[in-house]
From TrEMBL:
<feature type="transmembrane region" description="Helical">
    <location>
        <begin position="206"/>
        <end position="233"/>
    </location>
</feature>
<keyword id="KW-1133">Transmembrane helix</keyword>
<feature type="transmembrane region" description="Helical">
    <location>
        <begin position="106"/>
        <end position="126"/>
    </location>
</feature>
<dbReference type="InterPro" id="IPR047798">
    <property type="entry name" value="BPSS1780-like"/>
</dbReference>
<keyword id="KW-0472">Membrane</keyword>
<feature type="transmembrane region" description="Helical">
    <location>
        <begin position="60"/>
        <end position="81"/>
    </location>
</feature>
<feature type="transmembrane region" description="Helical">
    <location>
        <begin position="239"/>
        <end position="267"/>
    </location>
</feature>
<keyword id="KW-0812">Transmembrane</keyword>
<protein>
    <submittedName>
        <fullName>Uncharacterized protein</fullName>
    </submittedName>
</protein>
<feature type="transmembrane region" description="Helical">
    <location>
        <begin position="34"/>
        <end position="54"/>
    </location>
</feature>
Amino acid sequence: MSTPPPMMLHLQTVPSRNGMLWIRHGFKVFQRRPMALAGLFSLFLFVSMLLLMVPGVGVMLLLMALPQLSLGFMLATHLVLQNQTPTASVYLMPFKLTPERRNTQLLLGACYALATVAISYLTGWIDGGSMDELQKLMGEGASADKIAEAAANPALLWGAITRLSLAALLSVPFWHAPALVHWGGQGLMQALFSSTLGVWRNRGAFAYNALLWGALIMGLGLSGSLLAGLLGLGQVLPILAMACGLLLSTVFYASLYFTFIDCFMFGAPGDLLKDKR
């Protein structure tokens, strides 16, 4: 496999309405290769479960792999746009380039894992271990009263707010960083800075995109619950929820490619992108 030279990437600002276009393009790409893309995400879930079974380092390895999940789906989407069928090899492509880019990808994963662990320890200190206690009670099948009492702990709310806020902030520098290393040949700090700048310059589109994803997830969840209740199919609700979760997760990761090409003017095939901006 020949090593592609670093591509010229130019930071640009797009309208907020592009936040909706990213989702629409994600669904269009999924429609082209639904089984291949869903299979890629299912494969990652399977490997994740195997990693969690590895004592000691399993969790860290899984956290290190998360940035490569987003890059793998960007590569998969890029292939779909060229009328090719992506395979599991997309997860290995970033490590087959130059040693410098491979090492930078590994450093990105390590930094993301360490930062995530730091956030976990910090939020655990803020909530006083109330989240762990709630999860323990739920896992043990405790009574509803005990679970409700644990969930009512004010520290749990502040810990959850802190966890979500810090996780959102952490995602900003890592959002485009793997792609900037892979296609742009950027170093670790440059990629993190460029990703942060790209998200900030297009914060309106990203905020709109996040709101739409939230509305879509809640809308599908509510519709599924109402439909299952009306038809008396409550027993199949978990199966429906799992299928919808797989669908939306796959589409979400497929849409990441379009956030990248919009923020950095990356040259993507244009036959799919027919929406007027």
